[in-house]
Design brief:
The protein is an alpha+beta fold. The chain is 31% helix and 26% strand. It contains 3 helices and 6 strands; from the N terminus they run ααβαβββββ. The strands form 2 sheets. Strands 1-6-2-3 form a 4-stranded antiparallel sheet. The radius of gyration is 16 Å and the shape is elongated. The termini are close together.
Length: 117
Amino acid sequence: MSDEKLNLLVNDYPEYSEVIKAISDWFREHADQRAIRMDEFYSNQFGFSIEDVNAAFMLMRQQSMLKTIYRVLDDDGSKIGKDFENYSEIPDEVSTIWGVKKETKDVFVVPFYSLLH
């Protein structure tokens, strides 16, 4: 993530600056992880309101700093297959790592956010 883009966004939206900085810091501190769920920032650890977190993620997406990806998760939270950049790309049937076929209505499709470089 460009420091210039980050600084511009923080200056343009000071009411969300702490949330935006926390999201940016998370990606720097977890460089080995590709994506994060928005609800990671809903915890008391950060003390941000749900509305502020949602707004910060939306602003970062609008500024092409983040993109939404969709992960298919099994009922135990295990990732099934690859990430999808478009919800409509998700097939009607997916296979677990054990080769078990499941219909998408029987799994969870969860939006994650990935950093755009």
